[in-house]
Amino acid sequence: MKRYSVEDRLLKTRFEIYKEPHIIVDTSKCRECLNKPCIKICPAGLYSLDEDGNLIFNYEGCLECGSCRLICPYNNIRWNIPPGGYGVDYSFG
Amino acid sequence: MSIDFDVVVIGGGPSGLSTAYFLSKYGFNVLVLERGSKLGSKNVFGGRVYSYPFDKYFPGWRDELNVERWVSHEKLITLCKEDSIELTLARGSSDKYKSFTIFLSKLLEWMGERVESEGGVIATGVKADKIIFEDNVVSGVEAGGDVIKSLYVVFAEGVNSVLAEEYKLKSKPSPDKYAVGVKEVFKVDRSKINNLFGLDNDSGVAAYILGGPLKGVRGGGFLYTMRDYISLGVVVHLNEAFEEVYPRELIEDLRLHPYMQKIFKDATLIEYSARLVSEAGLHGILEKPYGDGYLIVGDSAGYVLNTGFTVRGVDYAVLSGKYAADTIKYSHENGSRDSKFLAKYMELVKSSPIYHGLKKFKDVDKALSDRYVYSILPGILCRLFNKVYSTGEEPYKLYDSLIDSIKSESGIINLIYKLITLGRSI
């Protein structure tokens, strides 16, 4: 049996992506954050580091769980929900 | 003031639709705003609903709601490295109908039909953007540029109560008492599900999973059988993200354990989902889930209980919706929107199964956040069973096996102390 990557799994979930992000991260502050728990907790794996060690974030594929909103030790994630009718669209939740 | 609706309910989940149903039944003019494009678009849970609130308040529901399976089998599955230990409660026929598996989209669709049959209005794809205050009384909402005035507003936003928090009607929860639940749903042949677990078409399994890849992680796994699907998931304490724990990988580790391989071989993944779960229990409920012109229900108010083995959420949501509706009826009969009258809501909650359950498990949050429990218990069980059922030349005595198993994972005194503390709280 093969392991599913997060990308494999996100392809199975339906999204209606809005043109603007509903989550805004002030990544300038992330350098100070040693642990960067957002990278680990996000079930969609939307937080990662680029080659220079800067935090990068993509809102497309957001499962709207809210884990990053609570976990950020610097309270640095401006978390909102997408406009009505947009974002994740579960059928088997 | 001129009003558009008597009550606006923000959120079309189990608590919001329950509130709307009872209010509509009482003759109120109700509008539900649901931000998802359909009911259920934004809702995720494990998979099981308890029947009792529907038996009590939704007569006829058993003829209307197409459940997936009735939970006839409760399983406690302890995974070892490759082996597994399974403990099953197989219910007699009469108790089987007391809980069922379902997808929330189905449950909510049915609840929505109930709301509409009583004259309630449900607007999907509409997000409430702002709250309108008049003389410090919540008097409606603004949604998509439209102003909607109402006598009362009910917040049923769910675990992420963005709007209620923005207006300081509740504070932002701390991550210490929350977990993230991650779920994968698979299409599996009905006959295969029946054969795997020894079920007939309408009976099903609810399983709690510990150990294996989850050993030492503050959290657990779950599995629910649907008619033609199986849901598999993990619930992991948020603070595990400060360790090297990745819930999104943990669920795959779980699926790839030999026990699960036999279930999920040839199964097709159809959806991946996630949500936050409160583990705060009694300590997580709002002290004042009401104020002038408004009430807060369901998950938004913290009405979720994780007992360590099972989770109560949808049933509490439905009950709190009923209490909210009763409270608004009472306040309206007294011609008031004042928090003095709406405080009746808390009285109803406090004398209900919600509060009684949460109070009974008031220390469960401590037990659930104790890493020790998650590492030593599965370890001891695995070693104990392997010793007792040893296939070597000489069998082991139960007592010797037990002592050896405990010593391999922990000190005996420490274990006894932990078991007593744990035993009291779960």
Describe this protein with a few key phrases.
heterodimer; A: 93 residues; alpha+beta; two-stranded antiparallel sheet; 3 helices; globular; B: 426 residues; FAD/NAD(P)-binding domain; D-Amino Acid Oxidase, Chain A, domain 2; 9-stranded mixed beta sheet; 8-stranded mixed beta sheet; 36% helix; 28% strand
| Derived structural class of chain A | alpha+beta
What ranges of chain A have pLDDT less than 50 throughout 5 or more consecutive residues? none
Compute the average pLDDT of chain A.
95
The gyration radius over C-alpha positions of chain A equals: 14 Å
What's the CATH topology label of the largest domain in chain B?
Answer: FAD/NAD(P)-binding domain
Instruction: Tally the beta strands of chain B.
Output: 19
Which term fits the overall shape of chain B?
Answer: globular
**Count of separate DSSP helical elements of chain A:** 3
- Main sheet properties of chain A: 2 strands, antiparallel
Question: According to CATH, what is the class of the largest domain in chain B?
Answer: Alpha Beta
As laid out across the biggest beta sheet of chain A, the strand order is 1-6
Element pattern of chain A in H and E? HEEHEEHEE
What kind of assembly state do the chains in view correspond to?
heterodimer
Largest sheet of chain B: 9 strands, mixed
How many structural domains in the coordinates of chain B?
Answer: 3
In short:
With 93 residues, chain A is of the alpha+beta class.
Describe what this molecule looks like in 3D.
- The complex is a heterodimer of chains A (93) and B (426).
- In chain A, strand 3 and strand 4 (55-57) form a beta hairpin.
- With 93 residues, chain A is α+β, with helices and mostly antiparallel strands.
- The two termini of chain A are 24 Å apart.
- Chain A has helices at residues 6-10, 37-41, 67-71, and strands at 15-16, 23-25, 47-49, 55-57, 77-79, 87-88.
- The radius of gyration of chain A is 14 Å and the shape is globular.
- Chain B folds into three domains: 2-66 and 104-171 and 284-361, FAD/NAD(P)-binding domain (3-Layer(bba) Sandwich), CATH 3.50.50.60; 176-278, 2-Layer Sandwich (D-Amino Acid Oxidase, Chain A, domain 2), CATH 3.30.9; 376-425, no CATH class.
- Helices cover 36% and strands 28% of the residues of chain B.
- Chain B has 16 helices and 19 strands.
- In chain B, the strands form three sheets. In chain B, strands 3, 4, 5, 6, 11, 12, 13, 14 and 15 form a nine-stranded mixed beta sheet that branches. In chain B, strands 1, 2, 7, 8, 9, 10, 16 and 17 form an eight-stranded mixed beta sheet that branches. A two-stranded antiparallel sheet of chain B has the order 18-19.
- In chain B, helix 1 (14-25) packs parallel to helix 4, helix 9 runs antiparallel to helix 11 and helix 14 (371-388) packs antiparallel against helix 15 (398-409).
- Chain B is globular, with a radius of gyration of 23 Å.
- The mean pLDDT of chain B is 94.
- Chains A and B meet through helix 1, helix 2, helix 3 and strand 6 of A and strand 11, helix 7 and strand 15 of B.
